[in-house]
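Submission sheet (multi-component)
Chains listed below:
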Amino acid sequence: GPSSPSKDEL
Amino acid sequence: MNVFRLAGDMTHLLSIVVLLLKIRTTKSCAGISLKTQELYVLVFLTRYLDLFTRYFSVYNVLMKLIFIGTSVAIFWYMRYHKVVKQTYSKDLDSFRHYHLILGCFLMALLIPFDFSVTEVLWTFSIYLEAVAILPQLVLLQKSRNIDNLTGNYVFLLGAYRALYLLNWIYRFFTEIHKIRWIPWISGLVQTALYADFFYYYIQSWRKHEELKLPA
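Outcome: structure written.
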Protein backbone atom coordinates (compact mmCIF):
# COMPACT_ATOMS: atom_id res chain seq x y z
CA GLY A 1 0.00 0.00 0.00
CA PRO A 2 0.99 3.63 -0.01
CA SER A 3 3.78 4.48 2.40
CA SER A 4 2.59 6.44 5.42
CA PRO A 5 2.66 10.21 5.18
CA SER A 6 5.81 12.17 5.74
CA LYS A 7 7.91 9.02 6.09
CA ASP A 8 10.98 11.15 5.44
CA GLU A 9 10.30 12.83 8.78
CA LEU A 10 11.56 11.67 12.17
CA MET B 1 13.63 19.85 4.60
CA ASN B 2 12.29 23.20 5.84
CA VAL B 3 13.38 25.48 8.66
CA PHE B 4 10.47 24.41 10.91
CA ARG B 5 11.31 20.71 10.60
CA LEU B 6 15.05 21.30 11.11
CA ALA B 7 14.33 23.49 14.15
CA GLY B 8 11.96 20.79 15.40
CA ASP B 9 14.51 18.01 15.03
CA MET B 10 17.25 20.11 16.66
CA THR B 11 14.91 21.01 19.56
CA HIS B 12 14.05 17.34 19.98
CA LEU B 13 17.73 16.39 19.94
CA LEU B 14 18.50 19.18 22.42
CA SER B 15 15.82 17.93 24.81
CA ILE B 16 17.44 14.50 24.85
CA VAL B 17 20.94 16.00 25.29
CA VAL B 18 19.67 18.08 28.24
CA LEU B 19 18.19 14.99 29.86
CA LEU B 20 21.35 12.92 29.31
CA LEU B 21 23.44 15.81 30.69
CA LYS B 22 21.24 16.04 33.78
CA ILE B 23 21.53 12.31 34.46
CA ARG B 24 25.27 12.10 33.75
CA THR B 25 26.36 15.28 35.58
CA THR B 26 24.08 15.02 38.62
CA LYS B 27 24.09 11.17 38.59
CA SER B 28 20.41 11.57 39.41
CA CYS B 29 17.13 11.03 37.58
CA ALA B 30 14.95 12.53 40.32
CA GLY B 31 11.83 14.01 38.80
CA ILE B 32 12.17 12.03 35.57
CA SER B 33 9.53 9.46 34.65
CA LEU B 34 11.02 6.11 33.64
CA LYS B 35 7.63 5.24 32.15
CA THR B 36 7.77 8.15 29.71
CA GLN B 37 11.29 7.06 28.73
CA GLU B 38 10.06 3.51 28.13
CA LEU B 39 7.23 4.82 25.97
CA TYR B 40 9.69 6.85 23.92
CA VAL B 41 11.92 3.81 23.33
CA LEU B 42 8.80 2.05 22.03
CA VAL B 43 7.88 5.07 19.88
CA PHE B 44 11.28 5.13 18.18
CA LEU B 45 11.56 1.35 17.72
CA THR B 46 8.10 1.08 16.12
CA ARG B 47 8.50 4.23 14.02
CA TYR B 48 11.95 3.58 12.57
CA LEU B 49 11.36 0.01 11.38
CA ASP B 50 12.24 1.18 7.86
CA LEU B 51 15.65 2.34 9.07
CA PHE B 52 17.45 -0.35 7.08
CA THR B 53 14.96 -0.78 4.28
CA ARG B 54 14.25 2.78 3.10
CA TYR B 55 17.04 5.31 2.64
CA PHE B 56 16.14 9.02 2.62
CA SER B 57 19.36 10.80 3.58
CA VAL B 58 22.41 10.53 5.82
CA TYR B 59 20.70 13.03 8.12
CA ASN B 60 17.60 10.82 8.39
CA VAL B 61 19.57 7.65 9.16
CA LEU B 62 21.90 9.44 11.61
CA MET B 63 19.08 11.10 13.56
CA LYS B 64 17.10 7.85 13.80
CA LEU B 65 20.14 6.06 15.20
CA ILE B 66 20.79 8.91 17.65
CA PHE B 67 17.17 8.95 18.86
CA ILE B 68 17.09 5.18 19.34
CA GLY B 69 20.53 5.10 20.95
CA THR B 70 20.01 7.98 23.38
CA SER B 71 16.53 6.86 24.46
CA VAL B 72 17.84 3.34 25.17
CA ALA B 73 20.84 4.86 27.01
CA ILE B 74 18.55 6.96 29.21
CA PHE B 75 16.37 3.92 29.90
CA TRP B 76 19.49 1.92 30.83
CA TYR B 77 20.79 4.64 33.18
CA MET B 78 17.46 4.89 35.02
CA ARG B 79 16.85 1.14 35.17
CA TYR B 80 20.30 -0.37 35.71
CA HIS B 81 22.97 2.20 36.63
CA LYS B 82 23.85 1.43 40.26
CA VAL B 83 23.87 5.09 41.41
CA VAL B 84 21.25 6.64 39.15
CA LYS B 85 18.58 3.97 39.69
CA GLN B 86 18.59 4.76 43.44
CA THR B 87 17.41 8.30 42.62
CA TYR B 88 14.42 7.21 40.57
CA SER B 89 11.20 8.36 42.25
CA LYS B 90 9.45 5.03 41.65
CA ASP B 91 6.53 5.72 44.01
CA LEU B 92 5.74 9.04 42.31
CA ASP B 93 5.97 7.56 38.81
CA SER B 94 2.59 5.92 39.17
CA PHE B 95 0.86 6.47 35.81
CA ARG B 96 -0.54 3.24 34.32
CA HIS B 97 1.38 3.56 31.07
CA TYR B 98 0.56 0.01 29.95
CA HIS B 99 -2.98 1.28 29.38
CA LEU B 100 -1.55 3.88 27.01
CA ILE B 101 0.35 1.21 25.07
CA LEU B 102 -2.71 -1.03 24.77
CA GLY B 103 -5.04 1.86 23.91
CA CYS B 104 -2.77 3.24 21.22
CA PHE B 105 -2.22 -0.24 19.75
CA LEU B 106 -5.98 -0.85 19.53
CA MET B 107 -6.43 2.60 17.97
CA ALA B 108 -3.71 1.78 15.41
CA LEU B 109 -5.52 -1.45 14.53
CA LEU B 110 -8.82 0.41 14.14
CA ILE B 111 -7.53 3.54 12.41
CA PRO B 112 -4.19 2.71 10.78
CA PHE B 113 -2.71 4.65 7.91
CA ASP B 114 -2.61 1.38 6.01
CA PHE B 115 -3.28 -2.27 6.89
CA SER B 116 0.28 -3.53 6.79
CA VAL B 117 2.43 -4.43 9.77
CA THR B 118 4.89 -1.57 9.32
CA GLU B 119 2.12 1.00 8.72
CA VAL B 120 0.08 -0.17 11.73
CA LEU B 121 3.21 0.03 13.89
CA TRP B 122 4.08 3.43 12.42
CA THR B 123 0.55 4.65 13.27
CA PHE B 124 0.91 3.12 16.75
CA SER B 125 4.13 5.11 17.25
CA ILE B 126 2.39 8.34 16.23
CA TYR B 127 -0.52 7.78 18.63
CA LEU B 128 1.80 6.65 21.44
CA GLU B 129 4.07 9.66 21.12
CA ALA B 130 1.06 11.95 21.49
CA VAL B 131 0.43 10.61 25.03
CA ALA B 132 3.95 9.50 26.01
CA ILE B 133 4.52 12.65 28.11
CA LEU B 134 1.55 11.93 30.44
CA PRO B 135 3.50 9.90 33.04
CA GLN B 136 6.14 12.65 33.11
CA LEU B 137 3.59 15.45 33.57
CA VAL B 138 1.85 13.52 36.36
CA LEU B 139 5.23 12.99 38.04
CA LEU B 140 6.02 16.71 37.79
CA GLN B 141 2.72 17.59 39.46
CA LYS B 142 3.67 15.32 42.37
CA SER B 143 7.24 16.64 42.61
CA ARG B 144 7.66 19.45 45.13
CA ASN B 145 10.35 21.32 43.25
CA ILE B 146 11.29 20.80 39.62
CA ASP B 147 14.97 21.35 38.84
CA ASN B 148 15.89 23.58 35.90
CA LEU B 149 17.25 20.82 33.68
CA THR B 150 14.10 18.73 34.08
CA GLY B 151 11.93 21.77 33.31
CA ASN B 152 14.02 22.60 30.25
CA TYR B 153 13.86 18.98 29.09
CA VAL B 154 10.05 18.89 29.16
CA PHE B 155 9.76 22.33 27.59
CA LEU B 156 12.04 21.42 24.67
CA LEU B 157 10.25 18.10 24.20
CA GLY B 158 6.92 19.92 23.91
CA ALA B 159 8.33 22.69 21.72
CA TYR B 160 9.68 20.23 19.11
CA ARG B 161 6.24 18.89 18.22
CA ALA B 162 4.84 22.43 18.08
CA LEU B 163 7.54 23.18 15.48
CA TYR B 164 6.51 20.04 13.61
CA LEU B 165 2.95 21.42 13.41
CA LEU B 166 4.39 24.48 11.64
CA ASN B 167 6.39 22.14 9.41
CA TRP B 168 3.19 20.29 8.40
CA ILE B 169 1.39 23.56 7.62
CA TYR B 170 4.38 24.69 5.54
CA ARG B 171 4.54 21.35 3.65
CA PHE B 172 0.79 21.37 3.06
CA PHE B 173 1.00 24.70 1.27
CA THR B 174 4.28 24.16 -0.52
CA GLU B 175 4.51 20.51 -1.55
CA ILE B 176 2.02 17.93 -0.31
CA HIS B 177 -1.39 19.69 -0.62
CA LYS B 178 -2.97 16.73 1.18
CA ILE B 179 -4.44 16.42 4.66
CA ARG B 180 -2.41 14.09 6.90
CA TRP B 181 -5.02 13.36 9.58
CA ILE B 182 -3.07 10.87 11.70
CA PRO B 183 0.16 12.80 12.41
CA TRP B 184 -1.59 16.19 12.43
CA ILE B 185 -4.32 15.37 14.94
CA SER B 186 -1.88 13.35 17.07
CA GLY B 187 0.59 16.24 16.94
CA LEU B 188 -2.11 18.70 17.99
CA VAL B 189 -3.14 16.50 20.93
CA GLN B 190 0.52 16.04 21.88
CA THR B 191 1.20 19.78 21.88
CA ALA B 192 -2.07 20.57 23.67
CA LEU B 193 -1.08 18.24 26.54
CA TYR B 194 1.86 20.59 27.23
CA ALA B 195 -0.33 23.70 27.28
CA ASP B 196 -0.53 24.16 31.03
CA PHE B 197 3.10 23.15 31.50
CA PHE B 198 4.12 25.80 28.94
CA TYR B 199 2.06 28.37 30.86
CA TYR B 200 3.71 27.65 34.24
CA TYR B 201 7.17 27.24 32.66
CA ILE B 202 6.99 30.68 30.98
CA GLN B 203 5.55 32.22 34.16
CA SER B 204 8.42 30.84 36.27
CA TRP B 205 10.91 32.04 33.66
CA ARG B 206 9.44 35.56 33.54
CA LYS B 207 9.15 35.89 37.31
CA HIS B 208 12.48 34.16 37.96
CA GLU B 209 10.66 31.82 40.30
CA GLU B 210 11.04 28.09 40.72
CA LEU B 211 8.85 26.05 38.37
CA LYS B 212 5.86 24.62 40.24
CA LEU B 213 2.87 22.82 38.74
CA PRO B 214 -0.44 22.93 40.64
CA ALA B 215 -1.32 19.50 42.01
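Remark: The interface with chain B takes residues 1-10 of chain A (CB under 8 Å).
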